[in-house]
Design a protein that fits this description.
With 536 residues, this protein is of the alpha/beta class. It is globular, with a radius of gyration of 24 Å. It has helices at residues 17-27, 46-62, 79-90, 104-114, 126-132, 154-159, 195-206, 233-240, 252-261, 271-284, 303-311, 343-351, 442-450, 486-493, 522-528; strands spanning 31-35, 41-45, 70-74, 94-97, 118-121, 141-144, 175-180, 190-194, 218-221, 243-247, 266-269, 293-296, 315-321, 328-331, 355-356, 361-365, 381-387, 409-417, 423-428, 433-435, 438-440, 455-465, 469-478, 505-508. The structure holds adenosine-5'-diphosphate. Residues 181-182, 228, 297-300, 318-323, 327, 353, 411-413, 425, 428, 515, 517, 519 line the site of adenosine-5'-diphosphate (ADP).
């Protein structure tokens, strides 16, 4: 008889129901606060989220939803959305968190592509529901998170059940959530997370080298629950039993007041969120909130932002990732040599994207052949590739894997790997500017430009050039009332970058187009300036 060389440990299916069971059991009384869009506030706790998630699981079964099927949410951050994260997965369903800022065609595409059968939505998004209802042919039930006259309300709907429910016992490789990429080219693509990948990702997120959570943490996530699984915070937070403070509106005045009143220690958001907070504090003459840690990701955190937060005593966790990577890839925080670095050096290091957490492997390959692996020398930039247990293998309903035979997924990002593991992102493969056979990083130019006090936002694109192939042109939105000229910007850039990187032109514009996730849309910018000509 063949001997089975098994160890002597227990089977424990890595399903996320363990996460919410743990939070309810070990941190049941830890608060979950929600500030709703109408200004009202509610308080529940992990035990309450657990109970309501079980009721929701029962209610979904009563609607005839089967394990593996998708239901959607169109909602901001609040406790009922959190209940849905656990309730849907708890009955074996797959929650599709829809980004309300997508264009109508994208909204139609993703909901029908995912074959969502139920839609949970905030009353604030009623106009979207009204507009899309006829096009969302797969949706059979609409349930509103808020109570109202016209809609079936979430609380009433789950209130019909008693919460006496055994979680659905499926496989750890079953799906539990699906997020679509915003699709800057072509249709959005679905990334289906598994229970196992989600649990492992959340464990990684807890680490001191990542979110650094403890039971004393009080987190106000500004990153929306519909964007890249809110960076896994709702799962990692449950594992650590932290207090959550949610706001269904992103008004900096509301966030600021909540942060002070609720003793918030941690927050997370894209750079524009932090920028809005700075502007609010400056306008009102207020200090920044006394946060212990700020996670910034989704696009590069500018140096001045990092510096200001660090001077405020806030640890900056500059993170890189994407929907396809669950999304944690790398996170920045103090490294072993932190105390030996000067403040300036610490800021410089934090301006890079941090180091891979355990479970994630990174490499860079040559941009021209997309195959030869490059040295981790802190100098050579190349196409960034990633693999690991919470990295995509295949897009939802795709015929083929999205990775090569060794599991490497091409991120579409361009970066430099440093000898200590730090990732320095320099561009997107599509945006990097090729001038005379050499690469120029559009992102570095933008970051340098926004350091000028008169610049509110900057975007750099490569424009066709008769001699050099492409040359950088910088589009700049001025700060209100600022008096800056092209020369001012060029002089500001000159000491910061190589001479041949200096933009051939600086164009002042009223606005820069953004994607549904709030990032600069270079594609739209290029379309807008498709007739642009540079002289040879
Ligand atoms: P989308 O916003 O298009 O839905 P994602 O949120 O998945 O997609 O975006 C992922 C991309 O965002 C990354 O590939 C990278 O280009 C960019 N990004 C994320 N974090 C950072 C960061 N810290 N610095 C620079 N770029 C970042």
């Amino acid at each position: 008889m063949p001997t089975q060389n098994l160890g002597a440990m227990q089977d424990w299916t890595m399903r996320i129901t363990h996460v919410i069971d743990h939070a309810a059991r070990e941190a049941g009384g830890r608060e979950i606060v929600t500030r709703w869009a109408d200004g009202s506030e509610t308080r529940t706790d992990w035990a309450g989220i657990h109970r309501d998630a079980k009721k929701m699981a029962q209610a979904l079964e009563a609607l005839g939803i089967k394990p593996g099927e998708r239901v959607a949410s169109l909602a901001m951050n609040h406790s009922r959305h959190l209940v849905s994260w656990y309730g849907v997965a708890g009955m074996g369903g797959v929650l599709h968190t829809v980004n309300p800022r997508l264009f109508e065609d994208q909204l139609e595409y993703i909901v029908t592509h995912a074959e969502d059968r139920v839609l949970f939505y905030d009353a604030a998004f009623q106009p979207i529901v009204d507009k899309m209802k006829d096009r969302w042919t797969t949706i059979e039930h609409y349930i509103c998170y808020d109570s109202g006259d016209h809609a079936r309300s979430f609380e009433d709907w789950i209130g019909e059940h008693d919460g006496e429910y055994e979680w659905f016992a499926g496989d750890e490789r079953d799906p539990c959530m699906i997020c679509y990429t915003s699709g800057t080219t072509g249709n959005p693509k679905g990334v289906q997370y598994e229970h196992r990948s989600t649990v492992m990702h959340a464990l990684a997120g807890l680490q001191p080298a990542a979110f650094n959570f403890s039971s004393a943490s009080v987190m106000l996530p500004v990153v929306p629950m519909f964007h890249a699984a809110s960076w896994g915070l709702p799962y990692a937070g449950a594992m650590a039993g932290i207090k959550f403070v949610f706001s269904a509106v992103n008004d900096p005045a509301v966030l600021h007041e909540l942060m002070l009143r609720e003793g918030v220690t941690d927050s997370a958001g894209v750079p524009t969120v932090w920028l809005a907070h700075f502007q609010y504090c400056d306008k009102e003459g207020l200090d920044l909130p006394p946060l212990k840690a700020a996670t910034i990701g989704g696009s590069a955190a500018p140096r001045f932002m990092i510096e200001r937060l660090m001077k405020n005593g806030t640890r900056v966790q500059h993170a890189w990732g994407m929907t396809e990577t669950s999304p944690i890839g790398t996170v920045g925080g103090p490294t072993w040599d932190w105390e030996q670095l000067s403040f300036e050096e610490q800021v410089d290091k934090t301006a890079m994207q941090g180091r891979p957490v355990f479970g994630v492997e990174l490499r860079t390959v040559d941009l021209d052949d997309m195959a030869s692996e490059l040295p981790r020398d802190g100098k050579t930039s190349g196409a960034l590739q990633i693999r690991g247990p919470w990295i995509i293998r295949r897009y939802f309903k795709a015929e083929q894997d999205a990775v090569d035979a060794d599991g490497w997924f091409d991120t579409g990002d361009v970066g430099i790997l440093h000898p200590d593991g730090t990732l320095q992102l320099t561009d997107r493969t599509k945006d990097v500017i090729k001038s005379g056979g050499e690469w120029i990083s559009s992102v570095e130019l933008e970051n340098a430009a926004v350091g000028h006090e008169g610049v509110a936002e900057a975007a750099c694109v490569g424009m066709p050039h008769p001699k050099w192939d492409e040359r950088p042109v910088l589009f700049v939105v001025k700060n209100e009332g600022a008096d800056v000229s092209e020369d001012d910007i060029i002089e500001h850039l000159r000491p910061q970058i190589a001479k041949w990187w200096l933009p051939d032109a600086v164009e002042f514009v009223d606005d820069i187009p953004h994607t549904a996730t709030g990032k600069i849309s270079k594609k739209d910018l290029r379309d807008r300036f498709s007739d642009y000509k540079l002289e040879g």
